[in-house]
């Protein structure tokens, strides 16, 4: 785990706390001795039962998760206005043909705007941490943070807009803020429609895995969620360094989708049947995290191998779904 700046007990708000990365971050911050309050709208974009499972795991560790919708201004008063840090994970995620532009717009832009308004009303807020995505870069995500974004999906476009709404307040000196662009996160609690959870489920249930046409050769920075959380929490106590900045977080090691499939097969000890399905518009061809900036300023060094990360994910799946 990375060394954060010197910080004492803090009160932290995490949005999207019942989700994949948000729940892991909540646990880490709690283990570091901070008071953690989570919010989540428990929408049915994917299994509400999985989110409830995550929320129960957090509750068992003393972390409260409040059901609320960031797009409803009237619900914010229940939170109080005494947070030291806000980590904003909540979003309409991924590239999905079942999600409309309005879904992405309302969740990723309107929800973020209302959360910013709340943050500005907090007394003594030290830092607002926006969680961005490599999808902001576009079809190729191999660049440093100063490269002009070229998002190729509603998801990427609205996440870029959300990021800029947050950083605008830093530029106006209204609050300290930064944005972290995450790369292809994998591990326990990964969403069920994502590659590895679906692969693992297909392997255990003897079902065919739906592989998007042409994607076997796509390159990804598959990054273990624990390594991502290392980078996320490294901003604590480093407000002077990160204010107004964007950081890529992910591994520099690339793997093809085919290598990912073979890794799961090796761990399960069986071959997984493949069914080729129509490609997704806006799907990235290559992601390779350029983490020079995070390495230099935050001492960010991801170390978990793909095999190790997926082994943890398989163990989690077996413990919860078999």
Quick synopsis:
The protein has 322 residues and is α/β, with parallel strands linked by helices. Helices cover 38% and strands 17% of the residues. The strands form five sheets. The chain has a seven-stranded parallel beta sheet, sandwiched between helices.
Features:
322 residues; alpha/beta; Rossmann fold; seven-stranded parallel β-sheet; two-stranded parallel ribbon; 17% strand
Task: Describe the protein.
By secondary structure, this protein is of the alpha/beta class. It has a domain at 11-183 and 222-250 and 288-298: Rossmann fold. 38% of the residues lie in helices and 17% in strands. It has 10 helices and 15 strands. The protein has helices at 20-31, 48-60, 101-121, 154-171, 195-205, 225-233, 239-242, 257-268, 292-298, 306-321; strands at residues 11-15, 35-40, 64-67, 85-88, 127-133, 140-141, 177-182, 185-186, 209-212, 219-220, 223-224, 246-249, 255-256, 274-277, 286-287. Strands 3-2-1-4-5-7-12 form a 7-stranded parallel sheet, sandwiched between helices. Helix 1 (20-31) crosses helix 6 (225-233), helix 5 (195-205) runs parallel beside helix 8 (257-268) and helix 8 (257-268) crosses helix 10. The relative contact order is 0.15.
Number of separate strands: 15
Kindly estimate the percentage of residues that lie in beta strands according to DSSP. Answer: 15-25%
Helix content: 25-40%
So, CATH architecture of the domain at 11-183 and 222-250 and 288-298? 3-Layer(aba) Sandwich
Which parts are unreliable, with pLDDT below 50 for 5 consecutive residues or more? none
The largest sheet is: 7 strands, parallel
Q: What string, H for helix and E for strand, traces the elements in order?
A: EHEHEEHEEHEEHEEEHHEEHEEHH
- Classification by helices and strands: alpha/beta
